[in-house]
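Input.
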Amino acid sequence: MAESPNGATTHQTVQLGADGPTVSALGVGTWSWGDSLFWQYGKGYGIEDVRAAFEASLAAGVTFFDTAEVYGLGKSEELLGEFLQGTKSPVAVATKYFPLPWRFSASAVADTLTASLKRLQLPTVALYQVHWPFDFLMGQKTLMNALAAEVKQGRIQSIGVSNYSASQMHQAHGYLAKQGIPLAVNQVQYSLLHRKIESNGVLSAAKDLGVTILAYSPLAQGLVTGKYTVENHQPPTGARRLDPRFSKDGLKKIAPVIATLQEIGQRHGKTPAQVALNWLMGQGTVVPIPGAKNASQASQNAGALGWALTPEEQEQLSEVSQPWR
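Output.
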């Protein structure tokens, strides 16, 4: 996305997989929308806050939203569906199917998708993903064939998986290829403080197969924003309180990464979070999907677009975050 003289921006986009839909190069993860268990929706923030996050994202050219049936037990999809009714802007929506033990037939995929589309108030979604690589009573072949049937019916435009290993990706890709449909996406955790996909084969398999990586928790749940430091240590709210990375010892370990993000950010007039997201976008076909609970966070995230780190800065960040690879 290039910046024009008046500060406006032209859209920066990425195609999902080999021939999937084109979406904004940065997305929005909506796990926090309607979720009161992990994110405490309804206490510190509510519907007007997330509506403002939706509108601020669109205003900044971020038009790709990732949700799931389990987020807020359907509430996230319902909220997104409500917000979509209030805009004429083109929006790409991704959601997910959770392979629970009692969902052991192909018809379960169709029924679950029907329920998601109803909550979203949409006839089709850009991307439909398998949330976890569980087999239970329905094998991957049956699952992939059921998803392929939905592409052929037009209710989903592309197929993705989430949290799949390299070998699981190859297997899913193989089953779909027999149906003449590419695997478009693998959604995995990826950030400067969680680089496992670079060493466990997932990133290289994605590049080999033409699969786009959707990076969830790209800001390491806020750790790379610079908000949490040893000097002003305050335990986070909610389930993050249990994460040892937010302890004083944990924050000491990540201090060099934060310092590097701040130094590079000052050079570009960007925040540590914007630098961290830009680093991810520089790793190839990677689309970060940071969460946004309000307009301020959405606008902040969008500041990762429209510019690029130098190769030297990319390498500097890769080097300082090497322990998390």
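The first helix runs from residue 47 to 59.
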